[in-house]
Every structure is written in structure tokens, then in C-alpha cells.
Queue: 2 jobs
Job 1
Amino acid sequence: MSEVESTRAVIEVLFPEYGNQGGDNGNALLLRQSLPGATFIETRYGDEPYFVRNEPSLIIMSSMPEMQQENALKVLLPRRDRLAALVDAGVPMLVTGSACDLLCQRIVSPGGTAIEALGIVDAVCRRSEPHRYLDVNLGTFDPADGTPPIELVGFKIQFTQIEGDNSTSYFSRNEVGFGLREGMQLEGFRKRNLLATWMLGPILPLNPDFTAWLLRLVTGRDIRPAHEALSRASHAARVKEFRIKGAGIHV
Amino acid sequence: MGTSPRFLLGLAAAKASIAALRVTRHSGGQVPGVVAEAIDRTFLADMPKPARIAFVSGTNGKTTTCNLLADLLLDNGVDLVTNRAGGNIVTGIESTLIKNATITGKPRVDCAVMELDEISFRTVMPHVDPELLLVTNLYGDTFTRSADPAYVFDVMSAHIPARTRLVLNADDLISCRLAPHNTNKVFFSIGRMPFDTAEPEGIVCDLTACPDCGGRLEYDYCHLRHLGRAHCAVCGLESPAPDYEVVEIDRQARTFTVKEHLHPGTPQFTYPLSVHSVANIYNVLAAVVTAREMGLTGEQIVASLAGGVSVTAARFQAREAGGKRILTIASKGENATAASVAFNTIRKEPGTKAVAVIISDSHMAEVPEDVEYTGWYYQADFEYLNDPQIKQVIVYGATSDDIMLRLATAGVDPAITKVARSEAEIADLFDLDAVDGAYIAHCVTNVGISHRVADKLVDRARRTAHV
């Protein structure tokens, strides 16, 4: 691994104190171990985000409680235009789990009241507590850069369904499990290098090929994910399990 | 209430199911409730209730605390029914009430002490008017079902009756805020102690931001994870003043002293303690305070605890064999806090150790299409197993690959980790000669596996000692 390239990378972790639901903090943990020389900036509620005055190599924001989404929006909504400009400029961003709700036009509660969200993707997020949607996802991510498609596994554990059309802007195409909402195969959104998926896992430890691709996107170098062999074993076990007919999370 | 033909039919069928279960020697904790509900969909509402009902809820410690509370009351002549052998969701509550009812539904005893699942407040509380509710704490738990503590808080809070006496943990800035509409509250707390930490321990904290405004929380001290005293630097929210406060823990004498700020003269009582982990002190304190609120005197409780009433050790079993310590410790599945506390307990044990991690749910593994969610491993402190005194880590179960990966991210040297491919192989992989003790951290559903492995290790240690 190139320590020089790794050191140049600046990764902004938005709201790490909120973004640990379902173990989604595992994404940042694996990135730190894969890029030991990189600079990680943790932006907590009340801090000015690093991206406001700088261009990070990667922004990550992970699954957070519904209650904390509103706090995150208080910070992000006034910086919505800057964030959208960075998306348009191709700055890599990995948004996972319920953090993706923030990217929608609005978040609608079961009672019908709505809160304004960032509107970076053309979708509406509908909460339906207490109904919890549980599923497993096995699908394909197309890097669209000439490199081969990447098999992805992950979990869906959420109160929400997403209304929107991602037919030309999806993150992955599922073979198993629902995408944006039940009945849909297309999962998440991709807008240039904004990678938004409601999949949990956490997805980086579970998907070494995707992690390697992301590391290349962020650093421009072929950097292998930390603990790659173990990560491959874990990925292979999930692929085998998720292909079993009727596979799902049962509680 | 309790007189409609549908209710009486449901009750009779439920009682018949109890008899059938008895004949077939099954416990069937929730079956009577399921049968009753199948016939009378409003069975819990229709069922006559004991005059006094106390519920015990909260993420961690509710079973231990509920059992201890019931034992304290029973030891002091309070005739009561519990759901110790039943479930803690609506059908378990119904089953307990059915067992306590005559054929017409009249309660046989007038007091019930029952554990209640947090999410089940939604289905139980609208039909029951408890005299008292104890909430031990709220942590992240079973993300697949219960999402996050804030969600559980909302569910509980919305369904707590306004008149019920609430016994709340002042050291938990999540659960101490339950039910703002209820002013009938009493708070318990452990005061500042020498073993406190400045910040919550752990890779993930369930309370890193103010639960009211989302602002920065400042901790004065912590006893266990986020339990301690904290205040919000933005809105000023702070831990409430305790009515019952532990002012001294004497580990030598195995006692703790509680000052009762709410009673005239602020009396103090010193109680015996059988297991002195912080988690257990909270359990015993919660039971003691609730027993006080239910009318027992401090002297009665002291006498009961001194006379043998104690926390059950089902989740913690320690034995000595051939000079080796063999210990099993259980934690709830998909509960990062419980697993972290188990790992930390093992880490703090004296001497060198070999540790088996058996937290893959063996029952789920029996059903091929049942997928176990493993993401919660990243919220559990496997880092505690990265310790120079831990010489070996053995992993077993359907999610072994995920656990091995998590151990690596926690810094545990892969050279000391091994995967057991069968239950029989677990004990064989322990290198007992190289360590002072063997430790098994397991989820509650794997208690059978864990105890069988421990039995084998005890036999081996004894045989080796006799050679």
C-alpha cells in the first residue's frame, strides 16, 4: 500500500456519534484500518462540516436513529447547495442505511407530517413505524468505469419505504431482496460518485471487492482492504446463505 | 370484564392447554395466552387482574431483577404470581394471569410481579393498570426488532399510565426521562465511586448526544457504559437527583449502602451483595428500591438478602477444577452491551485465559433460510478480547466467519484464533495446559452447548490434575 497516497486522503465522517446503528460504524472502522495514513475528520453535531470549506477525498455518513436525522438535517440543510455542488463535482460519498433518508426530498412520518430533507435524490422517504422491513440483499454493483461488476451482499433493516424512480440512477441491481421498496429490484441511488444504499452489513467489511473499488476511487491506487481474506470468507458465507430459497431475517 | 362467553371459553381452553402441557411435560410458557387470544381477541382486556401489579422492564437486567424482587416479596410473606417460567410479551403476561386465575377468571393471589418486554408496552399497557413499573435501563438492543433506544423510549413512554409509580434509574439519561406526563416517579442511583471512568467505555455508546436537543453531552463520571451522571452543554438537561442513592460499596465486606433521601431522616441501610459487578449492583439496587416502594422495610430486605435470597446465577457459572477456573457467561443475542460486558468481565478475571465465543444463535442455524444479522458485532467490544492475558480465542457457530473478521478488526491476533467446526471440537481446541482458566462467552440460546463444553473442560482439568 502506498503510505503517501493513503496519507493524502482526507475522509470526513459525518455525525459519527449518531451513525452507528446496526453496527454501521464498521464502515469507518474498516476504512481507518485500510488507510492507516489517511486523515479522518469526525464532524459532530454542532461542528461546521469540513466539506463546507474543503473538498474531502471521501465523505461517509452512516445509519442513524430517526430522532437524530432531524439534528443532522439542521446542520446539513443550510449547506445543501455546497453538498450538491460536491456531488456534481464527483466527490466520493458513501451514505448507508437510514442516513440515505436525508438525501430524499422529504421524510414523511406515519401520521403524514413531513420534514424537509436535502433533496439530492428525487425520492420521498415514508416512515411506517412500527412496521419494520427486514430483508437480505444480494445484488450487483456496476462501477461503470470499465471494471467488472461487483457482487454485493447486505441487510435491509428499516422502518421506511422509498418512493422514487432510480431506474437510471440506481446503486445496485438486486438478485435477492427488495430495493428502494418492496417489489423493486433496483436498490439505492448513484449520482456520479455519490453512493447511497439503504443496505447495512456493515457493507464495507462484508464486501471486499466493493471496498477495494472504493479505496481506488478515493486514493487513485490499488489498496487492498484490511483483513481481506477474512472479509472474503464472510462475504462468501453470506452469498451462499442468501441464495437459499426464502432466506431472510426472521425475528 | 371477565364474564362474556367468549372470554370464559378462551380461559377454559387456555387452562386445558396448561393441563395438556403438564401431561406432556412441556413448559409452554406462552401457549395458554396464545390459545386464549385465538378465541378471545380482547382476552387481556377482559381478564380480571390482581389488585397489585408490578412490572419490571428495561434492556438489561430485568430478568435477574424481577426474580430477585419476587423472591424478596415472597420471603416476606407477600403471596404473588410471577412470569418467571413464562414469556414477557403479551401472551406470556396472559399465560401468567391465566395460571393465577380460577375457572371463572378470579385472581387466586392479589399480587403479580412480572417482567415486561419493552416493545410489548404497546400491547399490554392499554389493558393493565400497574401499581408500579421499574425500568432498569435502556441500551441498544436487537436492532432488527427494536431499532434504537430512542424508538423503544417512545414506545414505552407513550403507553405508561399517568398514575403508575415509576421506579427509574437516575444514572441512565435515556430511561430516566420516560413518561413526562407521569409525575409519580422515584429515582435510584449509584453515587460517585473510585472505579468510575470519565467517559462511557466502549466502541459505541448509546448516549453520545443529548436525548432532548442532540447537543454535546458532558459526562461527570460513568459507572457502566453510559450509566453515570451527565449534562447537556447546550440545553442544560442533566441527570435527576436520586431518591435512593448508593453511597458506599464495600467489596471486602460484600455490601452496599443505600441512603434514602426521600424518607424523613434520610435513613441508610447496608445490604449484602453476592456478586459485586456493577451490573449486578444495579440489579440488586433496583430490586431493593422497588421492594421498598412496595412496602417492605429496609430491615426486612437486609434479613432476606442475608438469609439467602440472592440473584440467580443462571447466566454466570464459575467452577474450579484441577487448578483451573472454568467459567461460562451468557449475554442476550443481538445485544452489544451485554456481549461487551461479558467480554470485559472475562478480561478482568485474573490470570491467563483461553476464551470460546459462542454467540451465533444455534437455533437459527438449524433453519437454513433463517439469516442471523451480524452487523451488531461492530457495536460489541470485541476489543476487550485483545488483551495480553488472553492467549487463545475459539469461535463456534454459523457466523464464525463474521466473528473472525470482527476479531481481526478488534486487533486480536489471528494466530491465536481458531474456528471449531463442531460442538464436540470446541472443548478439544482449548489448550488448558497453557492457561490459568477457560472462559466461554455465549448467547442465552446456546446455554446448553456452553455448559456441555464447560463440563468437558472440568473433566479434562480434573483428569490432568490426577495424572
Note: Residues 48-306 of chain B form a domain with the UDP-N-acetylmuramoyl-L-alanine:D-glutamate ligase fold (CATH 3.40.1190.10).
Job 2
Amino acid sequence: MPFTGKSGKFNAAIRTVEIGTGDKAVKLGGENVMPLYSFDAPIENAPKIGVLITDLGMENEVAGIKDYYAGASSFAEIAKKAEEMPGADFVVLRFEGADPNGEDRSIEDCVAIAKEVGDAITAPLVIEGCKNVEKDAELFTKVAEALQGKNVLIMSAREENYKAVAAAAGLAYGQKVGAESAVDINLAKQLNVLIGQLGVDPANVVMNVGSAAAGYGFEYVVSTMDRVKAAALSQGDVQLQMPIITPVADEAWNVKEAMASEADMPEWGSQEERGIDMEIETAAAVLASGSNAVILKHPASVATISKLINELV
Amino acid sequence: MTLFDVVFSGNDAVYGLTEKAIDDAIAANGADKAVAFPDTAYSLPCYYAVTGTKVTNLGELKEALGVVKSLMTREKRLHDAFMSGIATALCAEFIEVLKYMDGAAPYAAPEAGHLPDAAIRELGVPLVTGDIPGVAVILGAAPTAEEGVELVKSYQGQGILVTLVGGIIDQCVEKGLKMGANVRVIPLGKDVTAVIHAVSVAVRAALIFGNIQPGDAAGLMKYTMERVPAFVNAFAPLNDVIVACGAGAIALGFPVITNEETFRVPKSLIVQKDVSKFNATSLEARDIKLKITKIDIPVAFASAFEGEIIRRGDMQVEFDGSRVDCFELVLSKDATEVEDHKIELIGPDIDEMPEGSKQSIAYIVEVAGKSMQSDFESVFERKFHSYLNCVEGMMHTGQRDMIRIRISKETYQAGFRLKHIGEVLYARVKSEFAAVVDKCQVKIITDPAQCTELRHSLAIPMFDKRDERLTTLTDEGVDVYYSCIMCQAFSPSHVCVVTPERLGLCGAVSWLDAKATNELDPQGPCQVITKERVIDERIGEYEDVNEAVKKFSQGALEDVSLYSLIEKPMTSCGCFECICGIEPLSNGVCIANREYAGMTPIGMTFSELASMTGGGVQTPGFMGHGKHFISSKKFMKAEGGVARIVWMPKDLKEQVAERLNATAKELYGIDNFTDMIGDETIAEDPETLLEFLTEKGHPALGMEPMM
């Protein structure tokens, strides 16, 4: 008797959220199968890749990244290069320097950079903050206002500041809201519910359910994503059907495998290679666990993950 | 004249004026002449929101007036009065928009008139987050400029956005008050019709932030009522037009507070003769709760100070409930009995107490709130320990009437006095329990005679009453249980079902705690579980509980029993205070608590037992639970109850002895049941234990086999 495979597609689906405008707008989510299970049913929107740039420029980056951006000095030029990176779907601008405990860049300066970048590129833009909840709330409000009409994704609204961020991005200025929670399905769901109660349309919400570099408590991330997707698809939980975006670069390049110098760890080989490996491994794993988009920064990682996605979906 | 007559006549007057103004404008400019407010995408925002129709020229404005006329029905019913109020507001909007014809700028600083959309978006965000807790619309001139400015400043100090219409503007100018959007005081205009610019803010907030569709008048009114915390302060004298506008405000859900003796409508039209009380009356009427961001004390307040020890030599004064009469108490009161933020000291303050002396103290925190329940009193009270310990240079131990407090010399020298205890308790209770506490006041008593009196007449009876409630609180006596999924971060499929007689296995979440958590954080980890469809009374299995467990475990758990160790036992996350497990030889169970490091007769230590009990899986024969559950009548009720307990560590046995013995006496008529239970000093292996149990005649030996 011939084997007849049974399709594992679900009646429920992940919501499709579009970011950006025009030809280069990207759609996240929309699938009704487990992550990358394109053999069960077609996955309309393959996972997407965002390229990370920060307001701190290139100074602290590894040689491969510096080389790629060589010649680009203004934020507009850097953003343009990021957009053109082979495999890139969107650009992510992170305001690391806004942190009051760091460079404490003023809101006005950040807004100016955001506008410069927003005007320079045609690819969709995602904004990340500095992780200080008060500063981020103010920063996101102003950036969301300045980038009206560009349909950017503002990451992230967290439990502490979701009201300000979601009200500004999702209600006042018509942007997309990234709901960030810390590796816990219940917190993720609770935040989605709360943002919904503010009046933000769930179709405008993307989740960042938390991340870690592979090997650093990563099983929590995998388990959370697994369970989110299972609840969204098999149980039809509408509060968990938002697509997932996962910032990988921040985590992967900040662990000792990526940071230890070759002088300290000669037996580990090239530092840059290690960072790329961490970034690729982490990205591949979160894609397999259910991320609809990953944020990377090294051109080699972007190329590899892009190839992986193209082969699988 | 009735209130209806006043509203109708005011409405008619404004309608007449509006009709004439529009006709005159058409006569002068023709019907095609464009009319619009500047910098808005919402046309005439109020008219557009109510009807869904955009007005672009004078001819359309005239048509719109016809629609307004249709609202002006004259039955003496509340609905008619509200609609006439809305009609009055819309007329005001028409009159105002005419002022903007030909790109005119009818308002000059400080008056703002129509606010652009950008300003609404900017104000809308802090309104949504609660950083602007309310919007005050002040109309007319205060009895004196001082009183007017005082009122404005009082709102300003609370972060409330103040809009001014009419005489109050000149009063503020006269007193040199700084005004403008950046200081949250916005003068709109001197004509009463300028009040529409305040209404326009509320209406556009609903369109922008509430996704209200233009034309959905019912949705609009629901949104403004529930989400826009605005209210009106209208100063005497009121004329018909103002009253008619007021009816419009009330229709949107905004109460009107006035100092004129006029008609009263409960919660909507409120007479407050004393202008200095406008603020408190308005906040209460609109149910505005202020965020408390700062605790007003002269020393630091942080969890870093929680473990601070104040030694005898360092202390300025000590309050010691074990020696003199002291207590701490939360009481729920009626709203009329509580004056918010009132802190009262009865008796001497610290500076009148000898250094190093031992004193009496009693503090009573009285709270009122629409959702407050007396069951929450003890939940709040238990937090006092942590609140007071967070004060730099203050140490608090114990609870109820067995408290001890030390205040250090440095803290005293920094200016800390007893009223500051009140400030801390007030600020923390108001912010942490904002969902249920509307008003809070604190009484601090140091007069020894009164402390003694109140301890015996008020506090002890209250504590007794609560204990009584706890002991009479049974699983059968309540309608709902609660889930607790606080631990799912690390134990993803575990769900605790918390019942009055079975607290969470961590020992930290009782049914009352879960109930309070649910009330305070309705989306949080504790959700209501009904228990209407019983499957098996004996093991405590319900269809609704099973459904809830399945839902909250994301399908990992199908069914669970509340009272059985063997059949579908409740799962454990890993935070359990104790584990009980079957000891087959004696036909009973052994219990090990987390603190016990030794061996049990089961042949496993606590950690070894924990490794097979946690993780949200059902392991028949093994179960994690809280210490309090040991003496519950529901403890493995399906297998015969506490009579199955054959062994537990000595320390644990001592901790639970009193209550466990009472339960055993009640269930089986056995005296001093704990004497029959083995411990590590008697046996660490099953054979020796069995000998001991046989010698004592332990009831488990005669019970049916468990498996």
C-alpha cells in the first residue's frame, strides 16, 4: 500500500503584518503550518531578514562589517548600504546611544537620525531603543511621530511602557507595534491582551518573545516559541497569533564566544568567524522554532541565513 | 422651571444665534464659501464624529444645522435633554468655525481656540498612559481671582490638563499664571462657545485613539464616558446656555461641578459651594485616581534597605508589640468616611519620646473603593512589613498585634517623624492597590491608653473575625477557585488550582491572595475557575476545572483531581514547600519539607523526590504541596485524609502539630495525632518506621491499600 502523507496544516493561521510601504514593503507571518513546514502547506511569506545598524556607527564592529560599510559615513549612507546588503529585507535602526547610562543621546538627535535613515531608504524600517524603559517610551513616541506614513515597526513596547509606546505607535501615528516580553508565553500573551485593550488592532502587532544566544539559556527561547506557535495554531489562540520577530545580532555578538579576543583564546580561532557562527546558529534555531523574522548584522550571516530560508521555503 | 426647561431654552437660544450667524454668512459670502478649522483632518470634529458627515462650505453647514435641529426633541425625558445638550455643543462648533472663515486667526495668545490634530496626538499619548490623569474644563469666572488660580494650580500640580473658557482666563492673566500646552494650562477663548474646542479634543481622542468610526455616536459617547477622564467646573452665575452646554458634557460622560445653587443630578450635575473643594469633588465624581510617583519622606525608600538591621545602640526609638500594646490594621470603610491622604497622629511624636525608649504604636489604614472587599484587608496588611522595611533606617518585624519597629538615630535626625509612616503606607497602598483603593487615610496612635483600648476593642476582634473567616472558608463554601500560573516561566505546563482548603504548593498563594491578585490584575496569573460541573466528588474532579487546566497548560494536562494523590494528582512546578510520597510498607505517606536535608523512609531525600515530582507532570503517588495543606481536611481526602501521614521531619511536625492534631481530632477523634507520626529521630528506613507505627497503633496500618 502506498504511503499517503497527511498534511499538518492548521485551520488557524499566524496573522500577516505588513511593514514598510511601496514595492519593498514586507509581509511577516501568514502561515498555517509549523515553522518552515512548507511540505504541509505553502508558506506564503518566507521568514524575513533585517539588517541592524546603530546610532553608534561602525567603530565597535568587526572588520567584515566595517569593510562592508567602507566609504559610508553618514547615517543615510550606512542605511543605504544596509538596505542593499544581499539577502536583506528590511533595515533595523537601534538607538543604543540613547541610553541615559551611556552616551545619553538626546531625543531630538535620535529623531533627526531616524528621519535621515527613513528618508534615505525605501526598504521597511524597524526602530529599536536603548532598553531604558522611560527613555524608550519618550524616544519611540517622538520617532513614531517623525516617521508618520512610513509604516515602521517600533520595537519594543514592554510591560513597563507599553501604554505610551503602543498608544503613540499603534494609535496616534499609525505605525506597527512590537510587543516585547521576556521568554514567557504567559507574559507574551498578557502583553498582547493589554495592548489590545488600549485599542491597538492586533493586526498591527508583532511579538518579540525574547531571545538569547544559542547555548545561553536558549532552550527557554525555543520552548517559548514552540508553545506560542502551538497555542496559536493548534488551539487557535488569537492572542498569540502575532508574527514573531527576533533580534539575534544583539545577543549573538555579546557572548564570550564572539567577544573573546584571539590573543586570549588562540585555540578558538578567528574572533570574527566565531561571531558569525554564533549569529548564524542562533538565527537558524529561532527560525526553526517559529520566528517570522530575524535581525542580523554581519553580511556573511545575512547571506547564509538568506540561502537557508530560500532552500527551505 | 424644571431642568428640562432650562436646557431646552438654552438650546433654543444658541440654535437661534447659530441659524442667524450662518444665514448672515451665506448672505455675505454665498453658500459655496469654504469653512474649515485649521490643521485637522476631521472637518468639524464634533459634527463629523456624531454624524459621519464632513462639512466643507456654508451651504453644507446650513444643511448640518437641519440635522442638529432634528436632535432637538422636546419630550421631558433625559434622552431629550442630553440630545439638546449635544445639539447646543454642535451649534457652538458651527459658530466657532465661522470665526475661522477666510483663514482668519480669531484667537490671539494666550487664547488657543481650535487645537490642531498634532496637539491632540501629543496630548493623547499621556492621556492613554495616565500621565495626564484627567482633563478639567473650567468655565466662567471664579468668585475671586485667587480662588480661580488656586484651583487651576491644584489641578496642574496633579498633572491634570486644564482648559479655560471665559472669565477665568482674565483671572489667570491678572495673577500672572504661566499658561500654555507645555504647562498643561490651555486657555481656549472667552466666549462660552469656545468650550467646544475642549469637547473637540475629547472627540478627536476617541477617533484617533479609540478607533471610533465617524457617525458612531453611541460608540463615541461610550468611549468618552469610559476613556476620557474629563469633567467641567462651571462657576456661578450659570445661564441657560451654559446649562445646555453642560447637558452636552454630561451626555459625553463628563460631570459638571458648580458653585451655583441649581438642580442636582447625582454623579452628573453636582453642587459644591466651596470652590476650594472643587478639586476633590471633581476627582471623586470622575473617578480619577492620581498616580503616586514619589513618597514624601526625608529618607530614601528602596528595597535595598529591606534587610537592614537597626541595633539597639543605633536606635532612636522602638515600638515593641511583645511588651506594650501595638498593632497594625487595614480597615475597609465607606467612601464618605475616608478623606484621601489624611494622616493623623494621636499621641506624642518621636521628638517627645526619650531616646532609646520602648513605646506603643498602632496604625490603622482605612481604605475605601468601589471594588474593595474586606477579604483584601489582610492581603494589604501583609505587605506593610515590606513597605516599612524599605524605609532607610527603619526595621519592621512581625504582623498584626505582634509588631516591632525600630527607627534609627540617623533617620530621626534626617527629619523622619511618625506621620512619615503614614506617608509610606498611603503611597504604597494607593499605588500598588490602585485597582481597588480609591481613597486611603492613615491614623497613627501613640497614646498608650488608646493603643491598649483599641487593640482590645478593635484590632483583636478584627483578627479573630478574619481567622474565623479563614477556618470557615471551605472548598464547598465558595463558588469559584483560581488558577495560578506564576511559575510557568520555568515550568511551562504546570497549573496550580488554588482552593480555600488547598493553597498553592509554594505556600505563598492562598485562595484569598489569588482572589486579590485576580482583582488587581485581571489579565494576570490568577484567573477564575468555576466548579459547577462535578465529575467525581470523592477525588474532587470537575469538568470546568479540567477545561481550565487544559487551557492554562496549553493542552499539556487533560485532567486533574483536587484531593487525590493517586488519581490524576495535581502537578508541581518545582517551588513546592513540601513533597509527599507513598511509603508502601506502612500503607501511608511520608512528607519531606524543602529545609530537610536528610533521608526519608521512602529511600529518597527531598532533592531526589523533587526531581521526580516537579516540571508540571503528574506522578501518581507523589505530589508537591504547601505546609498549610498538611492540616487541611482535603489533604489526600480521596485516600483517607491526614490519617495516611506516617512520617515527616521533626521540625515540620512541630510547625504543623497544633493544626494537624485539631484536624485529626475532628476527622477521626484521635488525640495528639502527631505523636503517632514518625520522624528522622525515630526512623529513616521503612522497617523501623513500621515497628514504631505498629507500637503506636497508627491508623494508616488498618486502612485499605492505597494501590
Note: Chain A touches chain B through 28 residues (CB under 8 Å).
